[in-house]
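We read letters as residues; the integers encode the fold. Take this protein.
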Amino acid sequence: MIRAFLLDWGGVFNPQHETLEGYHALAGRYGYSPEDFYAHLYSGPEWAAARTGRLTSRDYWGQMQRKLGVPGDLDRFLAELFAGEVINPTMVALTETLRGRFRVGLLSNALDDLESLLAERWRLEHLFDVVVNSARVGVAKPDPQAFALALAALEHPADEVLFVDDKPRNITAAQALGIPSIHYTDAPALLAELRRRDLITPDEHARLNAIG
């Protein structure tokens, strides 16, 4: 029986970077395809260090700005890069609905400013009973230790926690640990799967589906 949810942040609550207006503008300006630009930002040694807390968020983005050769101050670079960023309202409403019946945790490969962004920019810290941020705990998905820390924080065994993530490698890692998992592709598909598993009611399904 599912008694808790463990949710990813990037690509689930907010859109993939490839869809952002600023992301596209910078990628085109500096001669990258969207895919290559994503890899440039999120697969190098700097990202590996930042997501495990060995670089602060500002140090990481400062290094990326210099690596790209983008002029100007860091805040201006970040404002342009994340122009058009929005939070998926269906996921917010779904999580608020789930919190009435389940413990809800966030497990994210993120930078050290995730918690402040949740509280100060998005005002969404109320959605989660626990937040396990890779930059804070020093270990990132798909490392089994990241999942172990999240399960311990939720205080539920693996088979009672449903994990939702947009990266197949993280789904594979969770399932290997006995954690039921759903590969997130979009909100309507997730809602349909939760309804199929009787984790939301027909009325909740209809209400949440209408948001998107």
Notes: The first helix runs from residue 21 to 29. The mean pLDDT is 94.
